[in-house]
Amino acid sequence: MEKMIGYTIDEMHVGQTASYAKTITESDVYLFAGVTGDANPMHINEEYAKATRFGGRIAHGILSAGLISAVMGMYLPGWGGIYLGQELKFLAPVRIGDTITATAEVLELDKEKNRAVIRTYCTNQHGTVVTDGKAMVMPARA
């Protein structure tokens, strides 16, 4: 039986990318609020949110980061890799109905320490970067 792991450090290269896309639904926002306990009215109360500078509800910023986790855990480096850390900036709001594409791009590889530095970012359906950051991962060992 074939061993099921993601990329090892030796299989990765600078510039390598992987992406995952998802349309954010109202259910996603409510479920995320329930799981995390973050029931900020910016996310769950349309009347409240209409009166803010956003003019309506926005998804939790960290919900887009969850899509980055999907890329890291499933595609780059993938199964068996360990997500060690993440720096993030939330640059634009994510609205219910937006299709968010999370992308990971290998920036640096340290084969001795089995570590990779990966740029992580999310864009909406208009190409606007909504979340930008950098992660450290430990790929699976062969």
SSE succession:
EHHHHEEEE
Q: Helix/strand/pairing class, anyone?
A: alpha+beta
Number of helices: 4
Strand order of the largest sheet: 1-3-4-5-2
* CATH level-3 fold name of the domain at 9-25 and 64-138: Thiol Ester Dehydrase, Chain A
Structure keywords:
142 residues
Describe this structure as you would to a colleague.
- This protein is α+β, with helices and mostly antiparallel strands and 142 residues long.
- It has a domain at 9-25 and 64-138: Roll (Thiol Ester Dehydrase, Chain A), CATH 3.10.129.10.
- It is 24% helix and 33% strand.
- It has helices spanning 26-36, 41-44, 46-50, 61-74, and strands at residues 17-23, 82-90, 99-110, 115-123, 129-138.
- Strands 1-3-4-5-2 form a 5-stranded antiparallel beta sheet, covered by helices on one side.
- Strand 3 (99-110) and strand 4 form a beta hairpin.
- It starts with 16 loop residues before the first strand and ends with a strand.
- 30% of the residues are buried.
List the helices and strands and how they pair.
Layout: E1 17-23, H1 26-36, H2 41-44, H3 46-50, H4 61-74, E2 82-90, E3 99-110, E4 115-123, E5 129-138
Antiparallel strand pairs: 1-3, 2-5, 3-4, 4-5
Short description:
This protein is 24% helix and 33% strand. The chain has 142 residues and is α+β, with helices and mostly antiparallel strands.
